């Protein structure tokens, strides 16, 4: 039993009789139908237990299904169901791509992920930088000091400094070429968006000041 897993009172072991075999034991669920059709259930692994009233209920299941039985181009999928508030529903499906929930459009093809809701990291969709605007408005970072990227944020660079950096390195400041996860990359891009708005606000302020001065000269 692996460390950290609960002790099981019943353990079913399927063991290979050939210690030199290339692969381990295979468990095959074969639906021997002479007339296969889309949505046919090929087999199911069920997880049952007891509720607080000692009733036996189904808590989760994994189902293999036919999507398209056409010879030489057959498609199948695995559906992962859980029971939540007494409702048995498919929470995730794995076909060509991965579907989470019941997203519009279903399977979007090989290697794709189609979500019905959103992606969260540590209970947040993403971390807005916000320290950019705080530093610009107050000259310091206190409220958003814990946000990723805040600790080493140098402040909004002038457009001349950005131009020099871009001409020399061919990328924006603080956005390197090293691989990163989507959340980290999105935080970098949002930092740049906030900086762009800071520059737009400053340029707009200067233009309005210039317009007032020109009106006064007239």
Feature tags:
6 strands, six-stranded mixed β-sheet, 25% helix, alpha+beta, 3 helices, 218 residues, single chain
Overall description:
The protein has 218 residues and is an alpha+beta fold. The chain folds into two domains: 41-115; 131-211, no CATH class. The protein is 25% helix and 22% strand. The protein contains three helices and six strands; from the N terminus they run ββββββααα. It has helices spanning 131-138, 159-169, 182-217; strands spanning 41-50, 56-68, 75-84, 87-94, 98-100, 113-115. It has a six-stranded mixed β-sheet with strand order 1-2-3-4-5-6, with no helix packed on it. Strand 2 (56-68) and strand 3 form a beta hairpin. Helix 1 (131-138) packs parallel to helix 3 (182-217). The longest helix has 36 residues, at 182-217. The radius of gyration is 29 Å and the shape is elongated.
Helix content: 25-40%
Overall SS class: alpha+beta
Overall shape: it is elongated
Q: What number is the mean pLDDT?
A: 91
Number of strands: 6
How far apart are the first and last residues' alpha carbons, in Å?
87 Å
List low-confidence stretches: none
Spatial order of the strands in the main sheet? Answer: 1-2-3-4-5-6
Number of helices: 3
Instruction: Determine Rg (CA atoms, Å).
Output: 29 Å
The share of residues in extended strands comes to 15-25%
Give the tally of structural domains.
Answer: 2
Helix/strand order, N-terminal first: EEEEEEHHH
Characterize the biggest β-sheet. 6 strands, mixed
């Amino acid at each position: 039993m692996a460390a950290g897993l609960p002790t099981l009172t019943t353990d079913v072991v399927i063991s290979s009789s050939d210690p030199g075999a290339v692969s381990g034991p295979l468990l095959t669920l074969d639906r021997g139908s002479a007339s296969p059709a889309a949505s046919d259930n090929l087999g199911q692994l069920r997880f049952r237990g007891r509720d607080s009233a000692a009733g036996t209920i189904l808590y989760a299941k994994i189902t293999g299904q036919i999507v398209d039985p056409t010879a030489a181009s057959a498609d199948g999928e695995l559906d992962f169901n859980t029971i939540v508030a007494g409702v048995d529903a498919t929470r995730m499906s794995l076909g060509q791509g991965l579907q989470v929930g019941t997203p519009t459009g279903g399977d979007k093809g090989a290697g794709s992920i189609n979500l019905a809701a959103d992606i969260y990291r540590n209970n947040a969709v993403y971390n807005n930088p916000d320290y950019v605007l705080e530093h610009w408005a107050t000259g310091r970072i206190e409220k958003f000091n814990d946000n990723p990227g805040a600790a080493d944020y140098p402040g909004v660079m002038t457009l001349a400094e950005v131009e020099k950096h871009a001409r020399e390195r061919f990328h924006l400041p603080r956005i390197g070429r090293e691989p990163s996860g989507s959340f980290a990359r999105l935080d970098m891009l949002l930092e740049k968006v906030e900086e762009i708005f800071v520059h737009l606000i400053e340029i707009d302020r200067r233009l309005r000041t210039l317009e007032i001065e020109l009106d006064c000269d007239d």
